[in-house]
């Protein structure tokens, strides 16, 4: 295919956003980059599992020592958290009803709490995803999502997922449910695969979302020649060569290379980044500005946590990593 200037920015963005992740762990105050676009606007981490919301999901929802690791509890907690995808909503629910585990009456306790939050003018959904409401007979969107979750629990989806053979078959199961289109079904499959409920490699399956499609169209002037998933897999295969060609330090996620889900996510982020850095490359979506400005988190930084089954040694090489990338890279 024919790469545009955005293609090179894709790899530079990946390296610099990972560098920011490491710098934040050794310097809580910043600044963490000289790149004006990265300093002004909000972008997710290079590795999806290192992002703030994914980190909370892994640490607090899935692997907290006091939590049950029964399949139905893991599935219920993960799906409830991800349907709203907002840390503040989860914490408000637990503050009101106590530790969340699956039981048949819990949805009746959750709904009035969500009602009250909305009456108080608080958001219950994250702005990260567009969350369509499944048509399940309720007036309010969150009530329909609770009905969707109840249907999944009645169908014993947790047990059925454990009978699947790979990410693709798990994805196909979730895709059957109303309100979960291809993008959301894939994202939820990845989230469930972080937990001990599933243990499939991420390397064999990917679904390109709308943002990724726009990013792909900006990176290649003739991207329609191939399926988006083929292009994502090609990026996974080429990562070492491209970082070397561009002279970029890229230690990976404590040695873990980019997976298809990460390259898919990077296409979403470069789609946004290019609106400012490459305004002359319109893409297929035609969006011209980035909506979310960067705001430092008020939460204290903690050592990152990743699924234990990945067997990553976190923190041991943090000083070395920060030394290697001490000089910010201007994109």
Q: Which helices and strands appear, and what pairs or packs with what?
A:
Layout: H1 5-26, H2 36-40, H3 52-62, H4 71-84, H5 87-97, H6 106-119, H7 141-154, H8 157-161, H9 167-175, H10 182-194, H11 210-219, H12 228-245, H13 260-277, H14 318-324
Write structural notes for this entry.
The chain is an all-alpha fold and 331 residues long. The protein has two domains: 5-52 and 205-324, no CATH class; 64-195, no CATH class. Helices cover 52% and strands 0% of the residues. The chain contains 14 helices and no strands. Helix 1 (5-26) packs across helix 14 (318-324), helix 5 (87-97) packs across helix 6 (106-119) and helix 9 packs across helix 10 (182-194). The longest helix has 22 residues, at 5-26.
Record keyword descriptors for this entry.
331 residues; globular; 52% helix; 2 domains; 14 helices; mainly alpha
In short:
This protein is 52% helix and 0% strand. With 331 residues, the protein is mainly alpha-helical.
Strand content: under 5%
Number of domains: 2
How many angstroms does the end-to-end distance come to?
A: 23 Å
Major sheet = none
Low-confidence stretches: 319-331
Q: What is the tally of helical segments?
A: 14
């Amino acid at each position: 295919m024919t790469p545009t200037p955005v293609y090179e920015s894709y790899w530079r963005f990946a390296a610099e956003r990972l560098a920011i992740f490491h710098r934040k762990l050794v310097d809580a105050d910043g600044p963490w980059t000289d790149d004006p676009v990265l300093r002004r606007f909000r972008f997710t981490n290079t590795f999806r599992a290192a992002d703030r919301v994914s980190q909370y999901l892994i640490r607090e929802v899935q692997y907290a020592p006091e939590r049950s690791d029964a399949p139905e509890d893991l599935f219920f907690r993960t799906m409830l958290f991800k349907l709203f995808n907002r840390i503040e909503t989860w914490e408000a629910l637990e503050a009101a009803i106590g530790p969340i585990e699956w039981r048949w009456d819990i949805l009746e306790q959750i709904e009035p709490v969500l009602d009250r939050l909305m009456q108080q003018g608080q958001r219950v959904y994250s702005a990260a995803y567009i969350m369509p409401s499944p048509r399940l007979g309720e007036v309010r969107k969150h009530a329909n999502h609770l009905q969707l979750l109840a249907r999944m629990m009645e169908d014993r989806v947790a047990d059925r997922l454990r009978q699947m053979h790979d990410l693709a078959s798990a994805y196909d199961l979730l895709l059957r449910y109303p309100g979960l289109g291809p993008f959301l079904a894939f994202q939820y499959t990845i989230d469930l695969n972080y937990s001990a409920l599933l243990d499939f490699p991420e390397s064999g399956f990917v679904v390109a979302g709308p943002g990724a499609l726009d990013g792909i169209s900006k990176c290649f002037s003739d991207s329609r020649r191939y399926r988006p998933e083929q292009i994502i897999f090609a990026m996974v295969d080429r990562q070492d060569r491209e970082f070397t060609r561009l002279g970029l330090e890229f230690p990976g996620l404590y040695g873990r290379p980019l997976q298809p889900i990460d390259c898919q996510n990077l296409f979403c982020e470069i789609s946004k980044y290019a609106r400012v850095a490459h305004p002359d490359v319109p893409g297929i979506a035609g969006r011209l500005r980035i909506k979310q400005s960067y705001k430092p988190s008020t939460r204290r930084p903690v050592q990152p946590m990743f699924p234990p089954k990945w067997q990553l040694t976190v923190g041991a090489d943090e000083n070395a990593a920060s030394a290697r990338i001490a000089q910010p890279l201007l994109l």
